[in-house]
Design a protein that fits this description.
The chain is of the alpha+beta class and 381 residues long. It is built from seven helices and 18 strands. The chain has a six-stranded antiparallel beta barrel. Strands 4-3-2-5-8 form a five-stranded parallel sheet, sandwiched between helices. β2, α1 and β3 form a beta-alpha-beta unit.
Length: 381
């Protein structure tokens, strides 16, 4: 499928903009660009933890006290008002508890995608609109364009190396109508963004990018889940159902995982084994050869469309991870669910992940993977 209608870039008229400022360089430069473009900008930092010291310290994460101070200093340099909004309870319910529940159910969630859906473009946007703001601005690398009929579309960033449209694929047309991404339509490298921040006098110019999951302080996801869910010893099985090892909680594994399996019995062919299936019902983890990971199709639930939902089936490309490559697919909506068939088998696909469909550079929408179809015998559902 190809795009045929002309499009124009983001709205030219001045807007009253609420800039979400994480304390990092991208959101600071985005806020500065929005202000320079003539918009009436107010900065806001989201306090997402009831105890900020429990989140990652130093410059590697987000949502810390340090980040709040960095955001405030950036707003002062830009010359815009600045506030801190407490969304900790909403974040805990919609992102952290959802993350734990998904792993407990044997699925692999994406908390950044959920945060965009539930916090930045739901809780934050709703509050912003109620206060009379026209739009929410973030430092994401993506582009919102306006078609001649006035409808909005989400497109990839001009620089594919920095594109973040995958984690924004949950936004609907209403949310896109109130979203600004000032970094998305410029072909600038991250070093150039940092240089721009330095020219603007922003102290975050040299601050390292955030990594991993912001609410897991030490980066130990398995340890975090064990603290929430406890330990529950279970069996690691091979494809024939034979026990080859034990684990302390099926939630500590993901489809396609190779390292950390602690399997005592080597494979007959001596080759590495990978996680093929996770079963919370009987607390087992099934492992097997890499070839058994080949996925030919999937079914996804809770589709969210970045504009008008597609009618019937069609040809698209799909992205399955935040920094993954596109793959050609045929996709169709059936009874409210999205069915996707891959032209060529793909690997590393797990229930709970998001599949995001693209038509050229345009984001069509996303859905949560519920089950996969494999060429092998082990189902992943």
């Amino acid at each position: 499928m190809t795009e045929t209608s002309p499009r124009t870039e983001n709205p030219p008229r001045p807007l009253r903009v609420l800039a979400a400022m994480s304390g990092g360089v991208d959101s600071a430069v985005a806020a500065a660009r929005a202000a320079e473009a003539g918009h009436d900008v107010t900065g806001v930092h989201l306090a997402l933890s009831a105890n900020p010291q429990s989140f990652r310290t130093g410059a590697r994460g987000c949502c810390t006290i340090e980040d709040s101070r960095d955001a405030r200093r950036a707003a002062d340099v830009i010359g815009i008002p600045f506030y801190v909004w407490d969304l900790a309870e909403r974040f805990r319910e919609d992102v952290v508890e959802d993350f734990v529940a998904e792993y407990e159910a044997g699925r692999t969630p994406n908390p950044c995608l959920r945060c965009n859906e539930k916090i930045k473009f739901a809780a934050l946007l709703d509050k912003a609109l109620a206060l009379g703001f026209d739009a929410v601005c973030t430092g994401h690398y993506a582009t919102v364009v306006t078609r001649e009929d006035g409808s909005r579309e989400l497109h990839r960033a001009s620089d594919m190396a920095k594109d973040q449209s995958y984690v924004l694929g949950v936004l609907d047309e209403r949310q896109l109508a109130h979203a600004l991404f000032p970094l998305g339509d410029t072909l600038t490298t991250k070093d150039e963004i940092r240089a721009e921040a330095e020219r603007r006098g922003l102290a975050v110019a040299k601050k390292p990018d955030s990594h991993d999951i912001c609410f897991i302080a030490d980066g130990d996801t398995r340890g975090f889940l064990a603290g929430r869910l406890g330990t529950a010893e279970g069996d690691i099985l091979d494809e024939a159902g034979q026990k080859v090892g034990t684990h302390e909680g099926a939630y500590g594994y993901t489809i396609g995982q190779r390292k950390g399996l602690r399997i005592g019995t080597p494979a007959p062919d001596g080759k590495p084994r990978y996680v093929l299936d996770i079963s919370p019902v009987d607390n087992t983890v099934t492992v097997g050869p890499a070839a058994a990971l080949d996925v030919t199709g999937l079914t996804a639930v809770r589709p969210r469309w970045c504009g008008t939902p597609p009618a019937g089936g069609g040809r698209y490309t799909a992205q399955l991870r935040a920094h993954g490559e596109e793959t050609p697919v045929t996709a169709e909506v059936r009874d409210g669910e999205l069915s996707v068939d891959f032209d060529e088998p793909v690997r590393g696909v797990a229930p709970g992940q998001a599949v995001v469909l693209y038509d050229g550079s345009r984001v069509v929408g996303s859905a949560t993977i519920a089950a996969t179809r494999r060429a092998g015998a082990v189902p992943a559902a």
